[in-house]
Amino acid sequence: MRLNLQSHPITPVSAIDDILVEWSMSETGTIWLRYHASGNVDEVKLPDIQDQPVRMDNLWESTCFELFLSEPRKQRYCEFNFSPSGHWAAYGFPRYRESMEPLALVRSPEIFLDFSDSHIALEVTLALPASWALKELDAGLSAVIEMQNGDKSLWALAHPAARPDFHHRDGFTLKMEAAEG
After folding, report:
1. 148/150 Cα distance (integer angstroms)
2. Which residue among 118, 144, 157, 160 has its CA within the 20 to 30 Å range from the CA of 36?
3. What are 44-71's pLDDT values in tens digits?
4. Residue 130: helix, strand or coil by DSSP?
């Protein structure tokens, strides 16, 4: 399935024209994502690619791609950040923006980057922890695009609030269901 992210109206940046996301989820809870941003990539600030990517905090402060997951009708949710550098982060929250804790993963996400002067493509394979490998999840897909001059454009499937807020549950508009057999 291919989905379009939208730039929040108060953070428009002309360098990126669109961001498309493709996704799938296996019956074992492995999620595959491909974020594809098109535009003038020379204007985008990209972190250096790392030979040994690690878990790292504050990735959202620069260009990164994100996934938020929640069980339908439950308060708890988790957040994943994927940097073009290869670094990643995973957090669990029992309630909206409350008591953020590192989320334990069975293995680090696999992150692959492909880019040119006209696109950034980031592909992720993420094995969900057993407690999140459910039949159906509500998901929010988002991206932070930082420009060379420091300006940021915030993209998501939906922007339910006047100010950008990727944690807002009304932005978790994608229903992710595991593929059968």
Report:
1. 6
2. 160
3. 999 988 888 999 999 999 999 999 999 9
4. helix
